[in-house]
Specification:
Helix content: 25-40%
Shape: globular
Radius of gyration: 23 Å
Strand order of the largest sheet: 3-2-20-22-21-15-16-14-17
Largest sheet: 9 strands, mixed
Strand content: 15-25%
Distance between the termini: 29 Å
Low-confidence stretches: 1-23, 562-571
Mean pLDDT: 91
Number of helices: 18
Length: about 575
């Protein structure tokens, strides 16, 4: 349910967008003659090589290599973490098998990135920007494109006293500069060495820069903020190939603001510098409760009390909801184990202290020799097939009274029943306490107004998330254009989503984990910030160099996907 203001805003956006982009012709992608006949040899004089890209064979994806090694997938120029997304009866999805770039350039420094973008601009080439390929919606892949692969931009630089360029009035702060190819596993290793905290996520094979462009929330965000709030400076390549530094003080302050939550539609980012914090006390609270409806209402009552006592800043993590049980996987920060135990008395949870070195406890190395570490729980998600997903923010006003808690709990149970009907593996309903900043610390909220994420993030207590996937071993095929939309599973998702929307009317969504099929995505992801983001997009990328599914300014879908399919087909 959308408010009158929201509806009017969305209508206005719909009117503005065609004026900006509808007249632009699609950029050149193979087998277009304008792509294949581009003077590729000219790049070699600049030390660049446009390599012919090949897709990963289906047999390899169905082997233990593709199924059980996310690190290996992220280390492949044409690899993606998911094998595709199903789409809907009216919106074709995407598949890795159908989205292979024609050529890719492996970037090793910012100057190479600038030359590559300039070449693409001069020859009107369709580009994609990819690090690890974790995006749920295939935003980093496009069939026949020139892929700019940032995975080797993996340098880090730790600063004891950092001031953004031109920001002389700012107080120096500890910081770290991360290349666009840096993954979480690399950061957490260095965090342990430096005894400093960087606000990362939980999936160790994800790239940090892409994560933070969409907002970027972690287990301790309510205490220390998000990837977006902690950005201090970004080195970026504009759509014409110019390499610039963006921060809140310089000539590109509007671009910098757009990068802080607006996604990757504005420029190619080569590195970002982030605030760091002293090593905190951390731990987790865990447990399993049966009779999930009653347990849910009890948990929501407990969490409401925590919020009203001003203690929400100490809590993050998730709660998994199933038809027969509820799993607590909460994280706490700057509490002792005893303080945690006192807080969770009567909830069925137990507390345990952690430290930053504990990230190694459930990780393994790549069985296929790719660098890094990956958590064991992530293995089966490699090459998984995304059925559907959605997130919705919830606030204190949604759980403050017994009646409100009952409404939300029943909606979650309806969604859990629908998820279990889809698959007994990979389909979940999750309460994510860490995907918002509402009722957080002063530190967490200090820079929120400088970001362009949905305004509801400042008040929300977290999200309700539907994330439904199938692992390849259960479907035994790699999705491609022959795959039909499963009408029964789509109906299950529609029922679950409708139940959540009825309980949380007007709620926004987290951009990095949204709904592929949402037709009101502009308002859902960014709310009142979208008009500003669209203006920034027009200023810095008027020709649509950086376009992708549900990215700012990519309204029609005609060019950035070239979806030719009609009817209930996959892609």
């Amino acid at each position: 349910m959308l408010t009158t203001t929201t509806t009017a805003f969305t209508a206005a956006v719909a009117l503005v967008m065609p004026l900006i982009y509808a007249e632009a012709a699609c950029r050149c992608a193979s087998p277009d003659p304008c792509f294949d006949s581009a003077p590729w040899f000219g790049l070699e004089s600049d030390g660049l090589l446009a390599v012919n890209a090949t897709k990963i064979p289906a047999a390899k994806l169905l082997s233990v290599i593709g199924e059980d090694d996310p690190l290996w997938l992220s280390n492949q120029p044409t690899g993606t973490h998911h094998s595709g997304t199903m789409g809907s009866p009216t919106m074709p999805g995407w598949a890795t098998a159908n989205s292979t770039a024609s050529k890719y350039i492996e970037l090793h420094d910012a100057k190479q990135a600038a030359r590559a973008v300039k070449f693409a601009a001069e020859h009107n080439l369709q580009v994609t920007v990819k690090n690890t390929g974790h995006d749920w919606f295939g935003r980093s892949v496009f069939p026949g494109s020139l892929e700019l692969w940032t995975h080797r931009l993996n340098s880090t630089q730790w600063h004891e006293s950092f001031i953004p360029k031109g920001c002389d009035i700012q107080v120096p702060t500890t910081a770290v500069t991360l290349g666009a190819g840096v993954q979480f596993w690399q950061i957490v290793e260095e965090m342990a060495q430096h005894k400093r905290l960087v606000m990362t996520g939980t999936c160790l094979t994800v790239g940090h820069v892409g994560f933070s462009l969409g907002g970027g929330y972690g287990d301790h965000s309510r205490m220390y903020g998000s990837g977006a709030t902690n950005m201090l400076e970004a080195e970026v390549v504009l759509a014409d190939g110019e390499l610039v530094t963006a921060n809140e003080c310089g000539s590109y302050s509007d671009l910098f603001r757009a990068l802080r939550g607006g996604g990757g539609a504005f420029a190619l980012v080569t590195s970002i510098t982030y605030r760091t914090y002293p090593e905190p006390r951390i731990g987790h609270a865990f447990g399993t409760m049966h009779d999930p409806l009653a347990a849910l209402q009890q948990f929501l009552e407990w969490y409401s009390g925590i919020v009203q006592k001003g203690l929400a800043k100490h809590w993050g993590g998730t709660v998994e909801v199933y038809p027969d049980r509820m799993n607590f996987l909460l994280k706490y920060v700057n509490l002792s184990e005893q303080e945690c135990s006192t807080m969770v008395t009567g909830t069925g949870m137990l507390c345990s202290t952690e430290n930053m070195e504990d990230y190694q406890s459930d990780t393994i190395s790549s069985p296929n020799g790719a660098p890094g570490l990956e958590p064991e729980w992530e293995l089966t998600s490699a090459s998984s097939y995304h059925i559907a997903s959605a997130t919705r923010y919830f606030k204190l006003e949604n759980i403050e009274t017994e009646a409100q808690r009952e409404v939300l709990a029943k909606a979650l149970m309806t969604a859990a029943d629908q998820a279990s009907a889809v698959t007994d593996r990979g389909a979940s309903v999750v309460i994510s306490l860490n995907y918002a900043l509402g009722h957080g610390s002063e530190v967490a909220l200090e820079h929120h107004s400088e970001t362009t994420v949905h305004p509801q993030v400042a008040d929300a207590l977290g999200t309700v998330k539907l994330d439904w996937t199938e692992v390849l071993e259960t479907i035994d095929y790699v999705p491609d254009s022959s795959c039909q939309v499963d009408q029964e599973k789509w109906a299950n998702f529609e029922t679950a989503r409708a139940a959540i929307d009825e309980a949380l009317p007007g709620s926004g969504s987290y951009y990095n984990e949204g709904d592929y099929t949402d037709t009101l995505w502009q308002d859902r992801y960014w709310g009142s910030n979208y008009a500003e983001l669209l203006a920034t997009k027009k200023k810095y990328d008027p020709e649509g160099m950086f376009s992708c599914h549900q990215c700012v300014g990519s309204a029609s879908g005609q060019c950035h996907r070239r979806l030719q399919a009609t009817g209930p087909v996959f892609v």
